[in-house]
Write a structure and sequence with these properties.
The chain is mainly beta. The chain has one helix and eight strands. The strands form two sheets. The protein has a four-stranded antiparallel beta sheet. The protein has a four-stranded antiparallel beta sheet with strand order 2-3-4-5, with no helix packed on it.
Length: 113
Amino acid sequence: MPLEIDIPLSEGAPLPFFDMQVSLEAVTYTLQFRWNVRASAWYMDVLDETGATYITPGLKLVADWPLGAYRFDHQPPGAFAVVDSAGEGQDPDDVSLGVRHKLVYFASTELGL
């Protein structure tokens, strides 16, 4: 597994709520994304293999900062981050997620965990 992987999000204006499955360090997780109009922000939940148990609830997607500074049981061992490809450090808006803003995952081996 590469030390840093891009999570393949749809390009273009994403739906205000969508989910996807991704394999991270030999475990399949479901990532749920939702746009919060009031907060003008994207949030991500990470679910276990059964899709029934929330592992990491309500991570706000902010640019250029490791997501989930607080560790939860059974969450992926590495770390997620949102990268602003324009280099301006702006958080993703309702149309930039998957276009200007990329979601990446850093493997635990890269982080020394």
